[in-house]
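Supplementary Text 2. Reproducibility record for the structural model of the 145-residue chain.

All settings were left at their defaults, and a single model was retained for analysis rather than an ensemble. We include the record here because the model underlies the residue-level annotations in Supplementary Table 4.
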Amino acid sequence: MGESVQAEVMMSFLVSEELSFRISVELRYETCDPYAVRLTFHLPGDAPVTWAFGRELLIDGLGRPCGDGDVRVSPADPDGLGEVLIRLQVGGDQALFRSSTAPLVAFLDRTDRLVPLGQEGALGDFDAHLDEALDRILAEEQSTG
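Retained model, structure tokens:
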């Protein structure tokens, strides 16, 4: 197992325009998966839910709207960097979270000190794990197909 960076951030879960509530979100970055960040949401009454997506998407989304798939990140106010919106979507269901930008920047700064942006490929362990995962996926496809 590689090194990791972890932080806990309070975010607003925006249920509707009229309803939101504060939740604890764990942010995690691991050198064994250097391209991704993980956000684990602790919603009241539910089991924690973890989303993994590109670290670069989170970085870019702090300053401009980014993402065109299941994860979209954008500044909450186009004129400022005070808050960021994180939209997660599965099929027709979506969840919207609002966070102060400062704790995300602090977390991303710590990830950059661990693995500088653009240097992810230099981690030999990641390539080995990726090769193993691809081999396993191909073997499973061949055995079922």
